[in-house]
Amino acid sequence: MCGRFTLRTPAEQFAAMFAQLTIPEIKPRYNIAPTQNILCVRNRDGQNEVASLRWGLVPFWAKDLKMGARMINARGETVDEKPSFRAAFKKRRCLVLADGFYEWKKEQDGKQPYYITLVDEQPFCFAGLWESWTDKSGSQAEAIETCTVITTNANELMAPLHDRMPVIMDSDKYDLWLDPEFSDPEPLKQTLVPFTSDEMKVVPVSKVVNKATNEVPECIQPLA
User: Fold this and answer.
1) Residue 129, domain CATH
2) Of the residues 2, 40, 147, 219, which is catalytic?
3) N or C: which end of the chain has fewer CB within 10 A?
4) For range 202-212, the mean pLDDT
């Protein structure tokens, strides 16, 4: 799964990944948690744009926002079938900006956090979906935009920690994934595969990250 991640890379590096797209200034984030707003790239009206979306997808038909807390991840294998995700999968796909994520492993002295990045520590994008939700009760006038991170089976590197991992999208698939006019499920689902183990690394880090309110560089501090 993916329950926490980081975004520390300067905007200029992400801008180089997307042609003709302006990335706003990025304040370093070391412990991004569900229900917080996260930066995503999506296509609207034929143009890519950066949007700040609440993490935890709330389907348009949901009664309230509480449902989003259970929808931070979507399984890639069934994302086109589940009522909560299938509409977004057809038309509202996005890319979540990131440069690392955390996973926990149960050990003798409790759960040990691990920080996972690419070997070259370059930024990347998770495959995601977004949705717009309006409060049917009328107490919330403006629509709230939310998102989820898609997961897949763990690769060999991740398997000792968890049986799932977030989908890190290959850059040559960005255009296909973001195209709202393309809705053939099979080619889209073929992009939702585990990233290559050889291009990733896992490092045990401080338990400071265990507390979601700890938003400090010490979260990614490798253990001695």
Assistant:
1) 3.90.1680.10
2) 2
3) C
4) 96
What domain range includes position 35?
5-111+121-197
Helix (H) or strand (E) holding 86: helix 86-91
Q: 184: buried, middle or exposed (CB in 10 Å: 19+, 13-18, 0-12)?
A: exposed
pTM value > 0.85: yes
One-letter amino acid at 222 equals: P
Return the sign of the alpha-carbon dihedral for residues 145, 148, 149, 150.
Answer: negative
Question: What is the end-to-end Cα distance of the chain in Å, rounded?
Answer: 26
Number of structural domains the chain divides into: 1
Per-residue pLDDT reduced to its tens digit, 70-94: 899 999 999 999 999 999 999 999 9
Q: Average pLDDT of the chain?
A: 94
Q: Is 2 assigned a catalytic role?
A: yes
Report the alpha-carbon distance of residue 129 to residue 196 in Å, rounded: 22
Q: Is residue 206 part of a domain?
A: no
Residue with tokens 């889209």: 188
Q: Indicate whether 57 belongs to any domain.
A: yes
Tell me whether residue 107 is one of the annotated catalytic residues. Answer: no
Tell whether 203 is covered by a domain.
Answer: no
Q: Of 94, 103, 145, 147, which is the active-site residue?
A: 103
Q: Is the pLDDT of residue 141 over 80?
A: no
Question: Is 220 part of any domain?
Answer: no
Burial class from Cβ neighbours inside 10 Å (0-12, 13-18, 19+) for residue 18 reads buried
Q: Reduced to 3 states, what is the DSSP secondary structure of residue 183?
A: coil
